[in-house]
Amino acid sequence: MTYAPETIEPKWQRRWAERRTNEPDLDRAERPFYNLMMFPYPSAEGLHVGNFYAFTGADVFGRFMRLRGYTVFEPMGFDAFGIHSENYALKVGIHPGVLIPRNIQNFTRQLTALGGMFDWKHVLATTDPDYYRWTQWVFLQLYHAGKAYKKKAAVNWCPSCKTVLANEQVEAGVCERCKTPVEQRLLEQWFFKITDYAERLLANLDDKSKMDWSATTTTAQRNWLGRSTGAEIDFAVEGPDPIRVFTTRPDTIFGATFMVLAPEHPLVDRITTATQRSAVDAYRKAAAAQDVVSRKVGDKEKTGVFTGGHATNPATGRQIPIWIADYVLMEYGTGAIMAVPGHDERDFAFATRFGLDLVRVVAGPDETESTPLTEAAAEVEGSRLVNSGDFSGRTVADGTTAIVGWLESRGVGKGVVKFRLYDWCISRQRYWGPPIPIIYCGDCGPVPVPEKDLPVQLPELEDFRPDDSGVSPLARHKEWYHVACPKCGKEGRRETDVSDTFLDSAWYFLRYLSTDFADRPFDQTRVRKWFPVAQYIGGNEHAVLHLLYARFVTMVLHDLGLLPAEEPFRRFRAHGLIVKDGAKMSKSRGNVVVPDEYIAKWGADTLRMFLMFLGPFEEGGDFRDAGLIGPRRFLERLWDLVGQCERRTLTGEEIHRDIVVKWNATKKKVTHDLETLGYNTAIAAMMELLNAMRDSNCAERQIVKDLVVMVAPFAPHFAEECWERLGYPTSVFDAKWPIWDEALTIDHVVEIVVQVNGKTRSTVRSPRGAVQDAVLPRALADDTVKRFTEGREVRKVIFVKDRLINIVVG
RNA sequence: GCGAACGUGGCGAAACUGGCAGACGCGCAGGACUUAGGAUCCUGUCCCUCACGGGGUGCGGGUUCAACUCCCGCCGUUCGCACCA
Predict the structure, then answer these.
(1) Residue A91, exposed/middle/buried by CB under 10 A (0-12, 13-18, 19+)?
(2) Strands (E), A710-758
(3) DSSP 8-state class, residue A601
(4) What positions of strand B are covered by protein, i.e. any atom < 7 Å from a CB?
(5) Is strand B less than 7 A from the beta carbon of A753?
(6) C-alpha to C-alpha distance for A727 and A161, rounded to whole angstroms
(7) Are residues A404 and A394 in contact, defined by beta-carbon separation less than 8 angstroms?
(8) Cα separation of A59 and A621, whole Å?
């Protein structure tokens, strides 16, 4: 019988479904292991090989844990709302409500063909009213907790997608999806107060008991949160309120020779003098009209206008001019800065451009207070404050503390912590999303939709094209739009914004557990058993947004007493990226790998093994068609070995000692490598064992059986079939993961490298554990070694047990 | 500019806390078996050299008996962030 994946793969997929092999009893699981992977957006193109790579890597781990005796819950779902779906629907002229189910069906077919151990009983789609009903419920929980609010804000508007974008969806000033330059618009938006959680979101990143995450991912989150410590300092101006600035360098305050306010700063009006009025107004107008692109691009020339007003530097007591400039952003800090041109690049550029004063307040070890400044001087080792009154001579660190203390004692400043993180704008003026469950009433104001009235169904809308009004197309559906106020019964109108897809995905891992409950978002018993997620695998492109939002929503729900943990994902690993022949896969290059063809030609098991063998899972790999033959050959050889051992069974004593050692060492290595997602080396180790068996003509049943179990996570259909051929009636996934004898993982005899002056000259075989005195004479007796030691004095011998002996001669 | 990761044969890659660099796989070369081979099996395969030997992990230094691994300085690639005060 030859190995024919095209028949055995469908056979086992059918049998898994019939036997409900992959549907664990969620209520009775004794050793639950929640194995999560990022659910896909069901595109019309179908799953690409990158998805397969991620899912296979996650699935291998799930199957491995199952073989180790865990009850593994491995659900799958579809992230089907959002601009992506909607734009595509508009393009092809088919309603997303029609397209999405079609795509989901195709995805399901592909996922089945992949052979993942998905629990289809708990499948979900975010577009399903039974799902988004609870997404709306999540919104209401946040609303009631005071973490959702509406504000008018300058937001990013994509004129092509005709929608508001979150700051995170703007990349260097252009829309992340369509690359159109983004404009600024002022709209009422719903926000979540994620900034309230900044400190906790940051602190938990270092808490290994809560989060065991890829370092690259935590680093990205840390940067995104952007904590900086500094001070808020008040600069007195004429009139009641001083101008408050935020600075990370309060130590340089004696060098603050002017101030800059954001053009939008509320105090600008009051400060501006009559003579400067028209110039200021013109500049503010220009800045307001400007899109976010050029506003935030860093390396353009500085612009700005003098307001005519002055403020008092609280350290020097001097009057300093107040300017406005668009390089100061209203959203960050206080929207105003003290400019220290001597020690800040941007301020330096600005001061140079407009001829403003420069004062050196920090000097390096080779500099003095009067060393001229040709550029903004950075702090170096041994820098000290100069020209800073009583604080001159102090180190930067020391001076910072002292100056903040001094400002605090005088009531003009205080040490503060700021975050780069913004509140999460969840409003989308689009059609294809869950309506935000709020009703506006003339008398009662905004009223949350009562939970019993959920879901707020997304109405059927023939024409769902967004328009330029900035108002969602939902407003055009009059019967839906007009609704009675839940509080007073008078006529109200619905919120027409839908929520961001990131809200859908911020809690889906909770819903998986309880898709069989219609009356609650997640069952408390289930959650207590299965939450937090034991392992989450996904792409690092979601390192900040999705993962941060999921953490935030979890934290809020935890604080509301609804979840037993505040961090949702105990272990997170980011998989690498798959490229094709060294180049990124993209439609425009025409090098997108469609997995279906490969499954048809090679079988899913070979494809899975190949993908896992490409390179380290967390680093990705290069998909080259030529490589598939390797894993395929391995499977065929193992297949043949299974056939041979059906006929031949040797007893333990007959097995060559070398093979026994290799066998045990392989079990140990494969186990360890799987734990650390070292799939490529695990496969290599199995290949080595197989090669060793073939070389010594060994088809020992015990070893073959172990190999079949170890290969099962990678090639599940193949392993099932082999398991059956070996005569077992049950699923191989009900088998036990092989154990090994530690004493048999190492050989009695070792090869010790003999070096002379650090260069390898020979090797000697020696019993394991031999001491230097036993090895040295034999090493010196070696012919090759003799050639290099003869006539020279042995000065030193370095001996590393069981590994190496280095003879240093002079 | 800032931050992070990385750089090893023709190619994808291995190498535990510093201890034989190139496991495993692809490809390639030679051979066997075949009517045939783009199937299968065997042998070989870092570079130079007939050999002895020498050189070799992006480049230049350093530490060490010993460096892919540690330290310093460059170069390059990729990915984040980017006027964040």
Answers:
(1) exposed
(2) 749-756
(3) H
(4) 3-5, 11-16, 19-21, 23-27, 39-42, 53-55, 65-67, 79-85
(5) yes
(6) 60
(7) no
(8) 18
Question: Among all strands, which nt has the closest C1' to A226 (CA)?
Answer: B84
- Residue A260 to residue A250: CA distance in whole angstroms: 16
Asked if A109 and A116 count as a contact pair (C-beta separation under 8 A), the reply is no
Whole-angstrom Cα distance, residue A588 to residue A394?
Answer: 59
In this prediction, residue A599 carries a pLDDT of 94
Instruction: Report how far apart, in Å, the C-alpha atoms of A488 and of each of A136, A175, A456, A475 are.
Output: 22, 42, 19, 22
Enter the tokens of residue A517.
Answer: 């409950």
Q: d(Cα A511, Cα A133) in Å, to the nearest integer?
A: 11
Residue A741: CB less than 7 A from any atom in strand B: no
pLDDT tens digits, one per residue of A219-275: 889 888 988 889 999 999 988 889 999 999 999 999 999 999 999 899 999 999 999
Cα dihedral A131→A137→A141→A144 (10° resolution): 160
Q: What is the 3-state secondary structure (H, E, C) of A110-153?
A: HHHHHCCCCCHHHCEECCCHHHHHHHHHHHHHHHHCCCEEEEEE
**Does any strand B atom come closer than 7 Å to the Cβ of A760?**
yes
* Residue A807 phi, psi dihedral angles, 5° rounding: -100, 115
Q: Are A339 and A313 in contact (CB under 8 A)?
A: no
**B12 C1' – A502 CA distance, angstroms?**
36
CA nearest to nucleotide B2 C1': residue: A223
Splitting chain A (810 residues) into consecutive groups of 10 residues, what average pLDDT does each group show?
91 96 95 96 90 94 97 96 84 90 96 96 96 97 95 78 69 68 79 93 90 87 89 91 92 94 92 94 84 61 91 94 92 91 90 92 84 79 86 90 94 91 87 94 93 91 77 85 91 92 95 95 96 92 90 96 95 88 72 89 95 91 88 94 70 67 94 94 95 87 94 97 94 96 87 86 86 88 83 85 86
CA distances from A751 to A567, A644, A737, A805 (A): 49, 33, 31, 11
Tokens of A145: 């907790």
- Give the integer Cα–Cα distance in Å for A115 and A717: 7
Measure the CA angle with vertex A594, ends A592 and A598; round to 5°.
130
Please state the length of chain A: 810
Q: How many Å apart are CA A132 and CA A454, to the nearest integer? A: 9
Angle (deg, nearest 10), helices A49-67 and A595-602: 60
Contact A36, A65 (CB under 8 A): no
Whether residue A462 contacts residue A389, with contact meaning beta carbons closer than 8 Å, is answered with: no
User: ipTM, 2 decimals?
Assistant: 0.93
**What is the value of pTM for the model shown?**
0.91
Nearest residue to A611 (alpha-carbon basis) of A576, A585, A649: A576
Give whole-number Cα distances, A186 to A152, A157, A181, A722, in Å: 6, 9, 17, 65
Of all nucleotides, the one whose C1′ comes closest to residue A346's CA is B83
Query: CA(A615)–C1'(B9) in Å?
Result: 17
